[in-house]
Amino acid sequence: MSGSKSKAKGNSWERTVAKFLSAQHGASFIRAPHSGAYIGGTNSFRKSRLDESQVKSFKGDIVPPASWIRFNAEAKNYADFPFHQLYQGSVPILEKWLGQLLEVANEGDFNVLIMKFNRKGSFIAIQPTPSLTINSNHFTYNSPSHGTWIIQDFESFWTNNRTHIEELATKAPL
Fold it and tell me: 3-state class of 142 per DSSP?
């Protein structure tokens, strides 16, 4: 897939996720301008020049409502995923995505990686959180670099945990 088609596919998925979250929470979620690249990676130096609300606007791929001060999300839409590598101990592409997610995270954030793969479905990866309901059809991924993550179906997870996610995302920093 060419770069522009791939980018359009990713942008479309980000808009779909934002629309889903807006409907679930009755609040406005939007696709982030620049999809986090403005303060991610080699651009992290820019965070020191921005105020808190500006940083929040460029953090992750989805911009939540203002009250969601602890929300950090990356959205990925790919043709395929090497699921077999989950059983081998390390998934390089997943390591890359978790690194991107955590690179812009603040301590105490609710961090979520939202993934879609052609003809396979949509999934989330979250750090274990006692207040969240995890269905029996999940996978525990022990990242060599980023700790433990739960991977499961995106829509059912979100629908089952809508209230708890909102509480985690809106709680005041400690």
Answer: strand
